[in-house]
């Protein structure tokens, strides 16, 4: 039996908010729906706007993590059978270091380490979509050394080089029955890497208004010499040989325009608009080192579209040490009708967030956030004919500790 699309449904989660992108790169911003391009507060600006990092007037080291708990269900249209995910907690993390050579220096150097893509998606045994996906586990880490310079008292420029490393394990069943009555199984495992950059400009035309503009480049993740392991009846082992494969997956470019308004010393309001170049993800291809009549190289259309994401957040300082935050985000899905898959059952979505920040003396600060979102999407996949309704709800509490010196 020919498997033309062996893993074309699986890899999308391994890369990038709508689609398979994860926007959990700073607890301060997460409390405000991840709006932070024009509101510079801490070392996480290395990610949100490298140009604004030069306006942070101290050395900082910050570490943070978010626990992502999600629950997915699927209702199949033909049989009305239901299935649930059994996914464990995801734990994307961040680590930022921002340094200056002397007090109030215009030049800042920094290193950002973050996990924009990393989780495990697992469906219960025997579910109706097991030939599309049973389990996906991903670890992805981005390293970004950054230089930021304040060219005037009101303008800052910054740029960071990005090296990305990823590790993935993907599994699904194969519609081949053995003597024990079990279906065949395949596991795809490997590591990949890619290169990119993050640049930004930050402008403070007045004490009450700031503007930020950033560009995060497309990163092409290359997976070389991954291993595809097949568990099939002995009579089919020559048709499904275990061996190496290669592939490339584009992570889209992101342009962000941010505005921040500070009506007074206590209140700050931030708005970010992201334009995400998902159209680059039009085809997913795999090159198997050893081909057979049942295992051919594949080219699977994805036909993603470019999208906008809108983020609005606010922060109010109750006292010198305590700040409360809230935000709302709206994102348009890049996944068009006919291309919804079990690992990315994406849809237009609204996200709600709240957050707190507390300063412990001059040197220490604690920031916490909580995000909630849910989606529902009905679709029939054009390649697999998997037809049904996906529902997903996710909670994401997070915490970060910062030391200033």
Helix content: under 10%
User: What fraction strand?
Assistant: over 45%
**C-alpha end-to-end distance:** 64 Å
CATH class type: Mainly Beta
What sequence of helices (H) and strands (E) makes up the elements?
HHEEEEEEEEEEEEEEEEEEEEE
Report on the biggest sheet: 14 strands, antiparallel, barrel
CATH-defined fold name:
Porin
Within CATH, the superfamily carries the name: Outer membrane protein transport protein (OMPP1/FadL/TodX)
The total domain count is: 1
Shape: elongated
How confident overall, as mean pLDDT? 88
Spans of at least 5 consecutive residues with low confidence:
1-17
Quick one: how many beta strands? 21
What would a concise description of this structure say?
The protein is built from two helices and 21 strands. The chain is mainly β.
């Amino acid at each position: 039996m020919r498997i033309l699309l062996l893993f074309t449904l699986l890899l999308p989660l391994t890369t990038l908010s709508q689609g398979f992108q994860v926007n959990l790169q700073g607890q301060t911003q997460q409390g405000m729906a991840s709006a932070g391009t024009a509101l510079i507060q801490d070392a996480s600006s290395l990610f949100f706007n490298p140009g604004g990092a030069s306006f942070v007037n101290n050395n900082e080291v910050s570490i943070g993590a978010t626990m992502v708990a999600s629950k997915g269900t699927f209702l199949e249209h033909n049989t009305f059978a239901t299935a649930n995910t059994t996914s464990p907690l995801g734990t994307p993390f961040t680590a930022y270091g921002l340094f200056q050579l002397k007090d109030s220096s215009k030049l800042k150097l920094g290193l950002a380490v973050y996990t924009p893509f990393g989780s495990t998606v697992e469906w219960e045994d025997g579910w109706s979509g097991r030939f599309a996906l049973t389990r996906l586990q991903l670890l992805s880490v981005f390293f970004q050394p950054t230089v930021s310079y304040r060219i005037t008292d009101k303008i800052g420029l910054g740029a960071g080089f990005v090296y990305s490393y990823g590790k993935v394990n993907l599994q699904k069943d194969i519609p081949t029955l053995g003597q024990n009555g079990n279906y065949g199984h395949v596991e795809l495992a490997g590591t990949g890497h890619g290169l990119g950059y993050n640049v930004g400009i930050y402008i403070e035309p007045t004490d009450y208004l700031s503007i930020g503009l950033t560009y995060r480049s497309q990163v092409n993740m290359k997976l070389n010499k991954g291993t595809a392991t097949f568990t099939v009846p002995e009579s089919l082992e020559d048709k499904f040989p275990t061996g190496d494969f290669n592939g490339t997956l584009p992570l889209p470019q992101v342009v962000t325009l941010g505005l921040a308004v500070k009506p007074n010393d206590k209140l700050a309001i931030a708005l970010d608009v992201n334009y995400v170049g998902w159209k680059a993800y039009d085809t997913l291809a795999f090159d198997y080192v050893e081909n057979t009549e049942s295992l051919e190289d594949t080219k699977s259309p994805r036909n993603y579209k470019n999208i906008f994401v809108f983020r609005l957040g606010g922060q109010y300082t109750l006292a010198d040490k305590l700040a409360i935050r809230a935000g709302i985000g709206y994102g348009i899905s890049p996944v068009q009708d006919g291309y919804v898959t079990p690992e990315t059952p994406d849809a237009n979505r609204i996200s709600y967030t709240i957050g707190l920040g507390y300063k412990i003396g001059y040197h220490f600060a604690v920031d916490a956030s909580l995000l909630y979102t849910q989606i529902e999407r009905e679709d029939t996949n054009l390649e697999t004919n998997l037809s049904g309704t996906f529902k997903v709800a996710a909670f994401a509490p997070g915490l970060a500790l910062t030391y200033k010196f």
